[in-house]
Write a structure and sequence with these properties.
three-stranded antiparallel beta sheet; 5% helix; seven-stranded mixed beta sheet
Length: 148
């Protein structure tokens, strides 16, 4: 039976993710907190993409598996770090004093179904015109996330 992010008779939701080469993986138990598309310049540059879809989890619900010590953390801005695999270069994680107790995972790395769909576009004021999300997606476009 393939693990999925659904609650089943065997226990709470389980999410699994891994980098491109498989050197670093992550398991998260229980429901995610949120999912959003981030358009900030730091995320765009870190991922080489028009925007990044993040899924947030309680840090205490996450277990990182890194048997070869490949996970590295880069201080991308004051109080914030981005985790990446030093073997394959996959950008994977984000943690910040702004969201204490949370670990943010790049949605594309999930190997199991997510338990929710994206709920918003954040840092929309920094979006780039060449990356055009569906204008009819019905998601709110937030200029910043400071107010929630």
């Amino acid at each position: 039976m393939t693990p999925n992010a659904s609650t089943s008779s065997t226990g709470p939701a389980r999410h699994a993710a891994r980098c491109l080469c498989g050197a670093v993986s992550l398991d998260a138990t229980g429901p995610s907190l949120w999912m959003a598309h981030c358009h900030c310049g730091l995320c765009r540059r870190a991922h080489g993409a028009g925007y990044v879809t993040w899924v947030g989890f309680p840090a205490t619900a996450c277990t990182i598996h890194d048997p070869t010590d490949a996970l590295r953390w880069f201080a991308s801005s004051p109080g914030a770090e981005r985790g990446f695999c030093s073997r394959c270069g996959s950008p994977m994680l984000f943690r910040s004093a702004r969201w204490p107790g949370e670990l943010h995972l790049a949605r594309a790395l999930l190997t199991t179904p997510a338990d929710r769909e994206p709920q918003a576009h954040v840092f929309w004021d920094a979006h780039v015109d060449w990356a055009r999300p569906d204008p009819q997606d019905g998601l709110p476009r937030k200029a910043d996330t400071a107010s929630g």
